[in-house]
Amino acid sequence: MRGGDSTYNKVIVDGVTINTPGGGFDFGTLPLTEADHLEFMRGAQSTLYGSDAMTSVVQVWTRTGSTPVPELRFGADGGNLGTGHGYASLAGARGRFDYDVFGDQFNTDGAGINDAYSDSLEGANLGVALSDQVSLRVRFRHSNSHTGVPGEWDFNGQALDPPDPGEWSQLNNLIGSVELSVVGPSGWQHRFTGFDYNYRYTDLNLNGDPARVDAFGDQFDVPSHQFDDINRVGFEYQGDDVERSWTHTTFGFRTEDENGFLGDLDFPPQTHGQRLNDDVYGQQQVILGRLSVIAGARFVHNSEFGNAGLPRVALTLLAFRGGQTFSGTRLHFSYATGFKEPALDQTFAGPPFFVANPGLRPERNRALEAGFQQDFWGGRYALTATYFNNLFRDQIEYATADPVTFAGQYFNVNRSLAHGAEVELQAKIKSTLSLNTSYTYTSTQILEAPLCTPANFCDTVYDAGNPFLRRPKHSGSLLLTYLGKHWGGNLGGGFVGRRFDSDFLGFGIDHAAGYVRVDAGGWYALNSRVTAYANVENVLDKQYNEVVGYPALPVNFRLGLRFRIGGE
Questions:
Q1: End-to-end CA distance of the chain
Q2: Which of 9, 180, 290, 376 could form a disulfide with 318 if both were Cys (CB 3.0 to 4.6 A apart)?
Q3: What integer pLDDT is reported at residue 556 of this predicted model?
Q4: Are 341 and 21 in contact (CB under 8 A)?
Q5: SS3 for 226?
Q6: Residue 226, domain member (yes or no)
Q7: Which domain holds residue 138?
Q8: Based on the structure, what is the number of domains in the chain?
């Protein structure tokens, strides 16, 4: 997002951060079964959300039971590539209590050798009103997924290596939270949350594959047994005070213990890393006529890298109220800062494969954005354009640090830039028909970087002047949606342009080719309690690499039925 790494996107489920510390998140392990709504925010958001919110935040909330008569929902779908999916939930509310208990199971054989995947999810959202002002809510999710790991082998249509037939990985995680909400007098709201996130990851390559060699004929697929056990546990208080209709104050405190064991069990000992974080934050929103102002800051103290201050200011101005044709013009501007702490293995990992770097600094972002929104015809159409400018400092990359043992080390790239523009058109053509289309231009460049020398043996893809890996300059999307009384459907398309990449194996692959993908879906209500649906991905059966070396799925489809019993 906006030129940032995948680890710059903070993912939160029911108020619990589910990124690994300083790391990313695999969205394939987050089924949206029983998701009530999803929120996506662009730009640096570290003032309110802390580490990892460098260029975006994604939040998912689980549905809350609301019907006095218990409601059972269940369904199943299946398709090609050996794909099967089933799900069920039971939700309701009685007196002071509400509940939602759910499960989801997904299995597929995938499109090639060692490409099977399965994911199991169980969860619950349980609430009780202790009084008219105080409520208690308990949420948890458990997910267990298993996938084959064929590795990189097909580079823009060139099968330069066979896929690995035996390596696999498993991810087992547990999310839990207890939230106490208190509604005070005069608009005061208080939320006290205790949370725990446990992440266990295993990657086993039992034998290695001698057929998988680099451009020099050397085998790179070797036996390994990676095992990571990471825990994030903590407490957060957030208060909100709506003093008047034109002002809103938010403030809070967060403390968290990040603790993990990481490494290869075949080459002990495992690396142990632990960090303690204490954050305080505040934000003030004021509406002054046509002008809306948001100003806030966060102070972070980390036991490893010290202190960080994170200010943010955002302005929105209704410049023109307009009439029927031109129905309002809004201008917006923001200055924000973001930061991302290093991952535990980046700071603490040691021999035989790594050289520890205790001096590794957190990654930083200075983010500017400015743009406008123009509404037309009473708000039925909206054109939005935003220019963004991200100046990243101390980005973390990997290079071989020891030319004898080839042990690697993570290091900070000094300075880099990502800037561009986003243009989006939202149109409500009819009450049942809508169109969303967007285009994004992103330009990236490493401005300053450590020089590659025989001592650090770093890869030249991180040289100053180069663009970032895997960031397309041009990308866009289109989604046409029909939502009727008895049936609905959507047609979506997206394009991603050519982008700088590397095979890192000496084959000389320096880019991933651009591609266009089209998806379609639809549903039909057989009656008020039974709905049939179908989804087709990659309708045109395009062959492409999202990341060079890893072929995407061909055309694939799923057909299913969902049912509802009880409820209202």
A1: 41
A2: 290
A3: 96
A4: yes
A5: strand
A6: yes
A7: 6-162+171-566
A8: 1
Token code pair at residue 117:
């995947």
Is residue 1 situated within a structural domain? no
Task: Render pLDDT for 61-116 as a digit per residue (tens, 0 to 9).
Answer: 999 999 999 999 999 999 999 999 999 999 999 999 999 999 999 999 999 899 99
CA distances from 296 to 50, 187, 204, 242 (A): 12, 20, 45, 16
Question: Residue 76's domain is classified under what CATH number?
Answer: 2.40.170.20
**Non-local CB neighbours of 268 within 8 Å, separated by 6+ positions:** none
pLDDT at residue 458, as a whole number = 59
CA distances from 261 to 23, 93, 216, 543, 555 (A): 15, 41, 34, 39, 40
Which amino acid is residue 163, in one-letter code?
P
- Strands (DSSP E) along 359-486, which ranges? 363-376, 381-400, 408-428, 433-448, 474-483
Measured on CA atoms in the order 155, 161, 166, 168, is the torsion positive or negative?
A: negative
Q: Is 43 among the domain residues? A: yes
Give the CA distances from residue 174 to residues 17, 37, 91, 124, 146, in Å, rounded to whole numbers and listed in that order: 12, 21, 21, 12, 15
Q: What is the pLDDT of residue 406?
A: 66
- Ranges of residues in the chain whose predicted pLDDT is under 70: 350-352, 400-406, 450-459
Structure tokens at 224: 């390994």
Strands 550-551 and 545-547 come out as antiparallel
pLDDT at site 306? 78
